[in-house]
Amino acid sequence: MDATVRDSEFDKDEVFAMAEWKEKEKVLVGHRSGLLYECPSHGQEVEEPELVGQVPGLCGLATSPDGEHMVIATGQGKLIQLNSEYEVLAEVELGEGFEKMPVTITWRGDGKFVATSSSHGGSRAIKVWERDGLVHHSDGEVDSRVGEALSWEPRGGLLAVAAEEGGAVQMLERNGLRRGGLVLQQSQYIIQQLCWNADSEILGVLLEHKDGMGVGDAPRQVEDDVPFRQKMVVQLWHRCNHHWYLKWQEPIGGPAQLLWDDTDAKTLHIFSRVEEGWTSIKFVWDDATVTQLGTTVTTDGSTLLLNSFMKAIIPPPMCNVAILCRAPITAVCASTFADQECIAAVLSSKVLAIAISEACGNWNTLLADASEGSLVDAVDGVVHAKEATLELPKQWFVRQVSWQGPQKVLLLVDDFSTGALCERLVSFEISWGDSSTMMADMVQNTCLNDILGCTGKTVARVTSMAGGDSDGVLISIVDKRQKNSPGGHLSSVASFDGSQLLELGKCRGCCHWLLPLKADRNGLASFAARSADRELFIGGELVASNVRSFGCHFAGEEPTVLYVTGDNVLHSLR
User: Fold this and answer.
1) Quick one: fold of 62-273?
2) By Cβ atoms counted within 10 A, which residue in 29, 339, 398, 470 is the most buried?
């Protein structure tokens, strides 16, 4: 979904709820005044949205997953169910002591149940209702001080409920019983929205600072003409082995709404007021980063968790070495140069963090002290990455980072400074001054629209070339104008040497997972890519389906491609 609204009257009225009518291909927008608007949901700019009705005292709304029903809450304490033609199907009372406050409404993934969070007598109540007739099903067992934000996991197991002060998220079952939770440790923030992605793997959290400060910022005066800027923060959390990882954080302008893509579970749309309208920022989830020497790099907030699988297999969230950064990590990459493992991370504060191991990927000696061959700061057993500030405009959002050479990193940036999305490839040269002070200087800034020659193409993935002996990257480009069945869009894979693109092959579907197979002076001879439909391509040729994961082994003259299928069988190709 990607649409921009330019109507001045529409922007002046405060938007507080959004939902999608999938059957009608429309986005339903609710305003504090009670006005309901419909906007197209697929790549159109709207001068004047369609006004479809008004509900006096509108407090909340949500459409069902199948797009057939909608539930709205009114200021009179009513919960009303309607169909897509806005005909009333059921109407019930929210409960005694109802206070005219915002009501959060969320549907379970199968659409059989809907949950509400409403204010009653100074505290909020969580209630679960059945789809047929809005029959009351259960009450949530929550603390007395819970917030407005509420989101039901699509697969139906957990109902996420926000604490009032933003310090925690409680998890409930359908019967209302408690089932663990998540500690944010951000008591100075208010959780404005909780949002699960389509496959229930990621929980999005929208935070607002009470005093208009960003996370990690010092107190400052907020200008009157930009009262919301930089005080809203988006966080993405992922659970694995009973541990919650903070995988991504980004300050944004406000007000804002989060919406996960229903076709690509790893793409997040962030709607925030930028200049004249509403703009969608897409986030593509990145899997675990693995080096050629078998070291995995996992991000958890401001910490890089390293595990060397050549030495030992340690279950998460434990690790061999933890490297600390000064702010949460938004993008990370790892590569091997001259037997040294090099990690680059971009922080939410627009700072570049670098960590380089000793020879043969030896990180364990860093626990005692930073050795002569490594690039980190180690004090009393705590390892810190080297950091340098990146001179990036405020409206540039770093989506990916990749090593372009031994002393050069490449950023894939979404640029919204002109009001429309422009993808950029930005190169930074890394150098060191006195006392091992690191500096990062921008040496190249390329607008992809100029290279690709049109606006119908977008970059899905940027990854470093194999071998570490060539300054360049491998890029997966999705052409949204070309569709085929059943793979949807068509992807092309190309090498980029800093000035031009060299196409290497085409793949069916959107390929977010990409690895080079061989590099020479003329560029890459081949590549391996996996599409969102789990199809594995080598050099543009389909070689396997139902592929869960894959990797490349570079020992010998020819690389070996290893992949695991859905039936947990390991395969190898040469």
Assistant:
1) Methylamine Dehydrogenase; Chain H (2.130.10)
2) 29
